[in-house]
Amino acid sequence: MVVRELKDWYPQYNKPLLISGPCSVETEEQLRNSVLPIIDKVDFVRGGIWKPRTRPGNFEGHGERALQWVQALRKETPFKFAMEVATPEHVELAHQYEVDLVWIGARTTVNPFNVAELAESFKGSELPVFIKNPIHAELSLWKGALERFSKAGVSKLGAIHRGFHSYQKNKYRNVPMWQIPLDLKSEFPELPLLCDPSHIAGDRGLVAEIAQRALDLNYDGLMIESHCKPDAAWSDAAQQIATANLPDLINGLLLRDDVFTKENIINQLELIREQIDQADRELLEALNLRMNLVEKIGEFKKENNVAIFQLSRWKEIFQSRQEWADQLNLDRQFVVEVLRLLHQQSVKTQTEVFNKKEQNLNLPND
Ligand SMILES: C=C(O[C@@H]1C=C(C(=O)O)C=C[C@H]1O)C(=O)O
Questions:
Q1: Could you give the CA distance from residue 265 to residue 4 in angstroms, rounded to a whole number?
Q2: Which segments constitute the Chorismate mutase domain (predicted)?
Q3: Which pLDDT tens digit goes with each residue over 55-86?
């Protein structure tokens, strides 16, 4: 997949790229009051034209009528406009109303049929397209959607991280699982990656901390929902910040450097990295030692006809190592995950030992 850096197609890019505006375009007045105060603080104004709602009976957006309001306001005061598209008809209207950027929502990214049909409708278009992560935590589906758009010739392509749905109650509305977007960025370093802290948070009081976290992780930009009267919003009221508070939120964000530049800092960094290299080497040597012992115990069990899986020993290991983790101030959950991996590999190795046929060089056809 060929991807282009933001700077390549958006020369005025100044990190972080900022997109803000109301969840939905509700009335002409709400649009005006939510947009005009922020146009020189953001790169793109967002506004929901069609809203995919979980259950029927909620406000589903005004559609083309809302686009006419956007068009009228832009005639008065120009600004770049961004919105979600979910069908080829939406894409056609995006072109007709000269929308500047569109995104594909999480509910659309999950469905390869919809994605393929949508991607097709962008053939020959110069519109930038950002793909939100699918609702559930599946990186390949996210990549698949990006690839489909790339194949259709969309070259101004980006990704938006909006968190993942979980049935369990969490601090945030959508669990961030930061490792997933970071894996995407590791594979496609040029791909512009934005964070949508509003959808992750689900609560306006948590938006700033998530936005900062994204910048700490070197995201390229943010999409933040803001509304002139958030408590009265027709959709996602709890997570939209007040338009009046947007400048403070933006000014309060700390931008990190991409890389270390000062020489004394680089030397200190090198020193710490050398120690990390050494620690990793010792960790792998310890793993190697453990795996050799596991192989030995496997052979011993085979000779004595004893089962591979030993529940009481495993329970004892699971318990004692968590206590060791506490003593060492290591995160228990992290240690539990490592132990599970170790046990899985250990059982696999012993199974291989059990299945290994004795070599008998005298019987080539055995
Ligand atoms: C290594 C053994 O076999 C299995 C693997 C274990 C491990 O990796 O620590 C522990 C218990 C067994 O389920 C063993 O019996 O000690």
A1: 31
A2: 263-354
A3: 888 999 999 999 999 999 999 999 999 999 99
Res 364 pLDDT > 60: no
- Residue 261 scores a pLDDT above 50: yes
* 317 has pLDDT over 70: yes
Residue 220: which of 136, 153, 134, 128 has the closest Cα?
128
Cα–Cα distance list, 268 to 72, 216, 264, 271 (Å):
56, 20, 6, 5
Assess whether pLDDT exceeds 50 at residue 366: no
Classify domain 263-355 at the CATH topology level.
Chorismate Mutase Domain, subunit A (1.20.59)
Q: Is 346 in the pocket of ligand 1 (CB under 6 A)?
A: yes
> What is the Å distance from ligand 1's center to 171 Cα?
36
Q: What's the CA-to-centroid distance between 310 and ligand 1, angstroms?
A: 6
User: Which residue blocks in the chain are alpha helix, DSSP H?
Assistant: 6-9, 28-35, 64-76, 88-96, 106-109, 112-120, 139-151, 179-187, 197-201, 207-216, 246-251, 263-303, 311-327, 332-355
Q: Confirm or reject: Cβ of 297 under 6 Å from ligand 1.
A: yes
Class at the top of the CATH hierarchy for domain 6-251: alpha beta
Q: In the block, which residue shows the tokens 């900062």?
A: 212
Q: What is the mean pLDDT of residues 245-260?
A: 95
Alpha carbon nearest to ligand 1 atom 15, residue = 310
Which residue, judged by its Cα, is nearest atom 1 of ligand 1?
A: 294
- Boundaries of every domain in the chain: 6-251, 263-355
Residues facing residue 159 across a β-bridge: 131, 193
